Amino acid sequence: MGEIEEVKDGRAVREVSSTSSPSDYSPQPTYAEEVPEKKKTLWQKFMTKGSVLQIIAAALLAIAIGLIVTTQVSDIPDAAVALLAIPGQLWLRALRAVVLPMIVTAMIMAVQRLRTMTQGGGKAGKLARWTIGYYVITTVIAVAHSCLLVGLVWSKLMTVVSGEQLQVDESDQETIDERAAFEIHEVVVDMFYSLVPNNVVNAMATDSLLAVLVTAVVLGYCIKPGSALIRAVEEIEQIIMKIITVLIYFAPVGVFFLIMPNLFRLDIAEIGVNLGILIGATLCGMVLHLFIIIPIIVFLFTRKNPYTIWMRCSPAWITAWGTASSAATLPVTIRCVLAQGVPVTVTKFAVPLGCLINMDGTAIYFPIVVVFLAATQGITLNAADYIVVVLLSTLASIGTTPIPSSSLVLVVMICGSINVPVTGMYAVVVAIDWFLDRFRTMVNVSCDTFAAVVVTKMTGIVDDPEDTLDDAHADTAHGAGVDPNTLRETHGDGKV
């Protein structure tokens, strides 16, 4: 018996040729232990292109410069803010450009793998049920504890403002009237209509991501496995991942120029007591949800350390904070989730779906804003009002994608449903919304990463080793720097 050892795809491969059996004339590869990689120093990790340390350093530097300039300079020219935002906006536009084709290819390949995986039937339905069920339940929990806290604690701290502050400018009144024209039932109708496009090309052209996702799922189920069309989708997926790899290298620069110009717009002197309570209540609700409630759920289901998972996925939520867009962060989120050992099939189904319907941060925000607008007028909500807020906030947070102006429109609608007049304080909410939106997005993306880990545990889905190896060989043949199916860029030991 002869043995030949070599290294393939980062693993030690021992090819064994046997002469004892006539059926074994070709070498049989058997995989031994992975070859351990040499540990990098902290400086080497920092110097890695697009590393999380570079992103954190860029974010902290941008915050420091932004706060220093904001506090020292009384009037920052709009032209300076706009020009400084150009590099960040270009990077953000490039990320958004690859999101739609990434969703299409990811969902098609995920459904294909669900059809052909060796575990047998039933996995597709189980994956869909657990993913959607987890997203809906955590959203309801987010709304419920937000209403509880704002009703028992935060509303008591808010004060009634004077009549002048409640007056609405003419321009703001036009906007409010326009947004008040939307009815709650229209949200439900639009949400369901957005699932099935009457024109697929138009849905792709207008970035109707939910419609595109559903269409991709149908295509993935209908396309014949191994067909030329599947091979074309795989080629497109390889191209997208090459582009994403380059964009991630530029993540520190992009995050820096997205955060710094926006902080120039923050006027700390104008933040009054009520607005400070609004910001504090929103951030406290998100901290409670992200660091206590969701970790408890994750630990109960998986028996894993949720804080370790969250830290290893730091490039995703830091990028989310910088871009304020779950869709733009999607490539980074998928990369981080794959790095935690989550199966490709689960990642490429659960994460894009969560990007569109899992809005825990937004769900926390709605009740706080509605109560803020009521409390500043001296209006106290009763139990029935809070029940309405819970139901509508849950529905609205899921249906934000197809609605113009997103959460700001839905705030007006929810206020109208419980007879809370929209006053001049709404302009205050609009003025600070861009800042809180970053934290909402960060919570949304963080919860997507947790969901992928939980769904993996509960469905028992694993990657087919043969498919993974074939994808790795195909990627090597194409000279790609990153393989979308076997991407395991570890932070720590790469396990959850």
The assembly state of the depicted protein chains is: single chain
Q: What share of residues is helical?
A: over 70%
The 3D shape can be described as globular
Query: What's the Cα radius of gyration?
Result: 25 Å
Q: Would you identify the regions where 5 or more consecutive residues have pLDDT less than 50?
A: 1-34, 469-496
Distance between the termini: 39 Å
Number of continuous helical runs: 22
- Structural class by sheet pairing and helices: mainly alpha
**What CATH architecture label applies?**
Orthogonal Bundle
Major sheet characteristics:
3 strands, antiparallel
Arithmetic mean pLDDT = 76
Structural domain count: 1
Instruction: Classify the beta-strand content into a percent band.
Output: under 5%
Transmembrane segments: 52-70, 90-111, 132-154, 200-223, 243-264, 276-302, 314-334, 349-374, 386-403, 409-436
GO cellular component, one term: plasma membrane
Pfam families: SDF
Biased composition (Low complexity): 17-31
Explain how this protein is built.
One of its GO terms (molecular function) is L-glutamate transmembrane transporter activity. Its main location: membrane. InterPro entries: DAACS, Na-dicarboxylate_symporter, Na:dicarbo_symporter_sf. It is found in: Membrane. The N terminus and C terminus are likely disordered. This protein has a three-stranded antiparallel β-sheet, with no helix packed on it. It is globular and about 70 Å long. By secondary structure, the chain is mostly helical. The two termini are 39 Å apart. β1 and β2 form a beta hairpin. 70% of the residues lie in helices and 4% in strands. It has a single domain, classed as Proton glutamate symport protein (Orthogonal Bundle). α4 packs across α12 and α5 runs antiparallel to α13. The protein contains 22 helices and three strands.
